[in-house]
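To: structure subgroup
Subject: Chain for Friday's discussion

All,

I'm putting the inputs and outputs inline so they're searchable in the archive.
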Amino acid sequence: MESQPASPGFGASLQLKDCIEELLRFTLVSSIDGTLEIDLGLSKDYCSTLLQEDPSNPFPNSTGLSEGVPLYPLYKRLAASLYEAISSEALPRTENKLAVMQETSSLKQKEEEWASLIREKGSHLLNVLKSVDFELHVQEPYFSLLRNGQKTVEGRCAVGHYNKYDFIMTCAFILINKCLILQVQDVCHYHSFREMLEAESLKEVLPGVDTTEEGVQVYRKFYSEEKERSNGVLAISVKKLVSQPSIDLSCMLSVRIEIERCMSSPNSESNFFQELSYAGVQRLLGFICTAGAVSEALPPPTSSLISSFLLPHNPNTKGCTLTDGARALSKHVNRSSDRYWGSFSGSVHCYFWKAIPRCLTMKFFF
């Protein structure tokens, strides 16, 4: 079922940038509720934080890649970074202003491995999307029913491109809600939804609906009786593909590659795994990690970061002007070769009001 009775979109115009955000959101949600086909390798709390909104965000209209602390929801920043990485076949560049964060050979090797993984999986994802013939939008609960295979027949009024009977052909690929690919198994034409529901299996068209009359009323919410009589109805039998965009995206976020070593070598390793996981996601989000960084850490919402510079660290101590943000920032003031944070002198109030803009405009670090 669709939110509005519209014609299908052509797959030829489908671009990765048009679906990467929704595809990533779908992948994270599926990982949280346990319906993702493979293990994403990221905790549920981590995925939930990536999806979290910031209702008090002072910059609600900022989108895409930008310098500074990434805005919530973080998955949008991650999606933009993934799109850039897949399109350019390289990790997005980061500007490193902290002397302690000069690239090591180990970090460089990891980044080369991550870039290689993104090129491989990104190429496969692009090929999957290129195979799409048209797009449809399906509302819940019918989207979930299509996804789990309970619903195998999609009924549509034959308006717009649907009235070209040969437009939707057997073996065509449909992208549902920009994240799920189904393959057309058969297409049948009927004069009405009632005729379709009587000819097809009701449990395959509308699982959970008990009678034909009840099913007709479901479709009546989307199509008028006049439009139904004028255009007729299509029953599109579909099957879910094993290869899904969400699987390719999952493999980019947490990839394990088994490298078979030469068994004749005395120092051979038969099973070696390389994971993108948290460190790779942090890199895609533009984070800079210092020694002792927490691997699963994510930045707080911008509104919380600003609030931390306004609230005293010890509110019960009379005359205390040290804030939580000031206390945390003081640990990093000497980690810059070009005095990026300014001179650590003067009153706490004056110094840290100068430092706040730096926090909001530089790459975030731990």
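Points worth raising on Friday:
Residues 2-6, 97-102, 257-274, 362-366 have pLDDT under 50 and may be disordered.
The CA atoms of residues 128 and 245 lie 7 Å apart.

D.
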